[in-house]
Amino acid sequence: MLQIDLDAIFKEKNPKLAKRIPKFVMNIIKKVLRVKDINDHLRNNGDRKGIDSVKFLIDSLNVTYEVFGIENLKKNHRYQFASNHPLGALDGITLLDVINEHIGEPRFLVNDLLLKLEIFDPLFVPINSYGTTSKEIARLIDQTYASDLQVIAFPSGMASRKIKGKITDLEWKKSFVQKSIEHERDIVPVFFKGHNSKRFYRIANWRKRLGIKANIEMFFLPDEMFRQNNSHFKIFFGNPISWEELKNNSNVRQWTEDIRKIVYSLEK
After folding, report:
1. Do residues 196 and 202 make contact, with C-beta atoms less than 8 angstroms apart?
2. Angle, helix 51-60 to helix 35-45, in steps of 10 degrees
3. CA atoms of 49 and 53, how far apart (whole Å)
4. What is the C-alpha to C-alpha distance for residues 152 and 93, in angstroms, rounded to an integer?
5. Residue 146 CB: number of other CB atoms within 10 A?
């Protein structure tokens, strides 16, 4: 049975740091990361895998959602879904369920630390390198984009922050546009309406004011996910942008900004 062993993960990723962390500090980290709740969920998940695990998590949290505009998309067409990232975890899980239900079998580009959650195999594709060579990751990404599977990407690479009173993504990386052109895959803009707790944004803002570069608030994302219990989300799908159009006007950075603007214009 899969269980998260945080001590083992620390030893694998940073052995020197693992030796220096006092036990009481590790216990605090485990509490913040909701390791017990995650392991309880993994036990209840049983032998479920892939999309069955996605559905079980959504049901366990009693999450519901409404979808708008997806009826304008073709089933089994090769899309890349480019979305804002308000929640940091549950938005991706929910999009996996929606796209699997309406369009076709999906893959979700994630930080490779999430590959430890094997219950979601084979839905996750790593995009960050922690203990895996960049060459291996590049090969997996290209295989995914070249396939007939649906690709879900969060171009910001991290959960939205609250900036000047508005919950918004940080800078979008342009690689999702480059990959769509390279692999002849149309892009569908997606707006996911949701937010994390005020605490999450306060931590992020204070961390920035204090000049701390480490993404401390990221450690609270598991807790943020469990706080979304009984939530209802609205998800808006825009019109596809063809890869030919992207290629004909090959200013990738401009396309990145334009698609981001389209995503936020979908909010209703």
Report:
1. no
2. 120
3. 5
4. 10
5. 14
Residue 85 has pLDDT above 70, yes or no: yes
CATH superfamily for 48-265 is Glycerol-3-phosphate (1)-acyltransferase (3.40.1130.10)
pLDDT by residue (tens digit) across 1-54?
578 888 888 888 778 877 888 888 889 888 888 999 989 998 998 889 999 999
DSSP label at residue 172? P
* pLDDT tier at 68, thresholds 50, 70, 90: very high
* Strand ranges for 58-203 from DSSP E: 64-68, 79-83, 106-110, 124-126, 150-153, 161-163, 166-168, 186-193
Strands (E), the chain: 64-68, 79-83, 106-110, 124-126, 150-153, 161-163, 166-168, 186-193, 232-237
Question: 85 phi and psi, to 5 degrees?
Answer: -135, 65
Structure confidence at residue 129 (pLDDT) = 47
Instruction: Report domain extents, the chain.
Output: 48-265
Backbone angles phi, psi at 106, to 5 degrees: -100, 165
Q: What is the pLDDT of residue 192?
A: 98
Please give the single-letter amino acid code of residue 143.
Answer: Q
Question: Quick one: how far is CA 102 from the chain centroid?
Answer: 19
How many Å apart are CA 249 and CA 59, to the nearest integer?
Answer: 43
Tell me the residue type at 224: E
Taking only the tens place, the pLDDT of each residue in 122-148 is: 999 988 645 455 788 889 999 999 999
Please report, for residues 7, 26, 131, 132, 264, the alpha-carbon distance to residue 12 in angstroms, rounded to integers and kept in the order given.
9, 15, 8, 12, 39
Q: What is the pTM of this model?
A: 0.90
